[in-house]
Amino acid sequence: MSCNFDEMLLYEFLDDVLEPAEKLVVSNHLSACPHCRKKLSEIKLMFYELEHMEAIEIPEELSLIRLEAVKVELGKSKESKSLLTQLQETKTVLLETPVVNHLVPTKEKMVKTSKFFYDGTKKIVTNMPKKEKKKTRLKGKLGGLL
Known about the structure:
Elements (H helix, E strand, L loop, with lengths): L6 H9 L4 H13 L1 H18 L10 H15 L6 H14 L1 H6 L3 H20 L11 H4 L5
Helix pairs in contact: 1-3, 2-3
């Protein structure tokens, strides 16, 4: 069974950006909801895996190899499909692959992430202390000319 608890609060809970009252609400909810506890564990695991992920080096020759392969395939078929159609078909096949599907962000995931960063930045800016303007004395700085 799933619940309708706002998943963004779980991210904010992990980032420790919630107000004390919000933290209490999330903590109480987590103590009663196994679905959200599982989701929180999954988020923690995802962050851990991202932090410990090895960088993938993409060979410089890849774009040349891809371009050559496309030329060869287009040359084989008299009724060749447009490059855009071939790329769309390739994307469809890749997105059906579980690993790739997990790594490629969907529009929904990107919107959630953008909202998360926007809200977090907004909270930081809102909670920043206001800088006081210093009053300067022109008389002292101009050597008594005024």
